[in-house]
Every structure is written in C-alpha cells, then in structure tokens.
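Translate sequence into structure tokens.
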Amino acid sequence: MLHFMMGEFEAEFPTDCRYAKNHMWASESGERIRFGFTAYAVRLLQDVYFLDWNFDAPATVSSRQLLGSIESKKAESDLFAPLAGELSEFNATLLNDPSAINVDKYGEGWLFEMAAEVDAQSELMTPSEYVSHLADVWEVTQRTIKGQLN
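Result follows.
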C-alpha cells in the first residue's frame, strides 16, 4: 500500500492497481479492466449519494468521453472515461445504492469494466507515479477546495 497525506487524512493506494489522472484506479479483471474511484477522489467527494450513467453498456468509448455524473456531499461532477475502448459493464448495484463507493472503494465500490485498447493502457500510471502526480497537484487542489483559486 502506498499513502498520500491530504492534510490530516491519509489516502491509501493499493500497489496492485494502475491509476488514471482523473483519480480512478484500474485493476485487471480477466480480459477486462475494472475502474473505481481512488481514496483521494472519495475523500474529496465525501459521501457519494447519487450516480447516473449517460448510456447503457456495452458501448465503445473514447478517452475522456463523458460517461455520466456523480453527486456527493461536497460536489456534483461529470465522470469521464479514463481510456478508449469497449465499456462492457457498469456496476448496477451502485445505481440503487452508491454507498459502496464510500466504504469499499477498491472492492464492491467499483464503477465499470472495459476492454481498453492496448496502446491506451500506457496512459495509466504506476502507484508511485500517481502519488507523485498527487503531490504535484495538491497545492492547487487545496486552493480550489478553499475557494481561493483565481
């Protein structure tokens, strides 16, 4: 497990996953890749209570394509595809009760599975690259959270 301190909160990142810049983890699940929110994303969102997808699976998606939206205590956000490929399945359980995102983010709180294009997978970061990325953007993130971004 790798860790990143978000003020007083410690976000944990399994070392058997890869990571996308949009704060999703990626784990191989057979021939597909399963995606979910990282501890960093869940901490920023806090208490996810609504999740909606713009279309049904299966569907071909491009990298950064709008997939749906999520609402939480702190924010309402659009969700984008981290990679290009064939989105094969959404976690249907989350549509009725997205609380698994809060409690089991690296397990039952997974969002979707897809078969990514082979060259697209190179866009995913190793755990240490992701933690370095978080360190690089943390100052701007804090200012944004506090509403101080000009």
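Note: The helical segments are 39-45, 93-96, 99-103, 127-145.
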